[in-house]
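Good morning,

Attaching, inline, the backbone tokens for the sequence recovery test we're adding to the shared suite. The designed sequence is right after.
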């Protein structure tokens, strides 16, 4: 008969003093809690960045819309104390001469053709000139009778700084020595010296702001010739004219002598 194996009772495992059997469980729970908190903070930061980006984009759109619809069309009414006068007239193409409201003209009916941009040595016909302004060109005009040649050269050099949509040209008979013009706008400069800073501000404010913003390369390059202001010399009488008068006088004397001889013959 087989003997039954005796079962030995396991001795209870001895644990160190202060041992907590739930400690590891609590550590795992704490690690998960910290992970959830970190994930929540990461989500909050991502949401904040997203809200910030959306806010900045919205603000940029609002500012751009305000500029485009309201501020873009605003232009200065004076520059460094020089009034910028505005003129308004209907505009259309015509081949007929036009009488303009201002001198020089800055708006109104005009030629179907435009003047080339760049440096001109002679006055541009008004109808061509106004069409160039319609394309967004800025023109610096001067009265050659009032402005020194050195100042004219400064004006031409300023136009040479630009590749397109600027003009310099003489325009006699203006109210002031120098006029800076663009479509609908006219700034008169009383001084016969070139105020470069003021002209630069005007160009920055008005170039390319015509109703037809069409490029116009500065292809014209014919500087002003001061000799064009010199009057033509008065012709002096030629020697032939004096000799002819003497011959006519001699012939008249001969005719009188012949008439006297005829009367004496009749008396006899």
């Amino acid at each position: 008969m087989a003997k039954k194996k005796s079962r030995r009772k396991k001795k209870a495992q001895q644990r160190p003093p202060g041992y907590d059997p739930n400690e590891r469980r609590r550590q795992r729970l704490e690690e998960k809690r910290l992970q959830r908190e970190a994930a929540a903070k990461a989500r909050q930061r991502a949401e904040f960045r997203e809200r910030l980006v959306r806010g900045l984009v919205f603000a940029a759109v609002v500012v751009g819309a305000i500029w485009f619809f309201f501020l873009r069309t605003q232009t200065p009414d004076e520059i460094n104390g020089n009034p910028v006068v505005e003129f308004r007239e209907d505009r259309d193409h015509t081949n007929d001469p036009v009488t303009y409201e201002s001198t020089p003209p800055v708006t109104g009916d005009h030629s179907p053709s435009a003047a080339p941009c760049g440096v001109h040595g002679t006055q541009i016909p008004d109808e061509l000139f106004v069409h160039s302004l319609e394309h967004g060109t800025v023109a610096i005009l001067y009265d050659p009778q009032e402005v020194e040649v050195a100042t004219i050269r400064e004006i031409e050099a300023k136009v040479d700084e630009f590749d397109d949509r600027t003009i310099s040209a003489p325009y006699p008979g203006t109210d002031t020595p120098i006029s800076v013009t663009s479509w609908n706008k006219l700034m008169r400069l009383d001084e016969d010296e070139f105020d470069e800073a003021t002209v630069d501000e005007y160009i920055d404010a008005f170039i390319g702001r015509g109703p037809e913003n069409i490029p116009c390369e500065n292809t014209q390059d014919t500087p002003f010739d001061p000799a064009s202001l010199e009057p033509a010399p008065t012709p002096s009488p030629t020697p032939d004219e004096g000799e002819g008068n003497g011959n006519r006088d001699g012939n008249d004397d001969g005719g009188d002598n012949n008439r006297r001889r005829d009367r004496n013959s009749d008396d006899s």
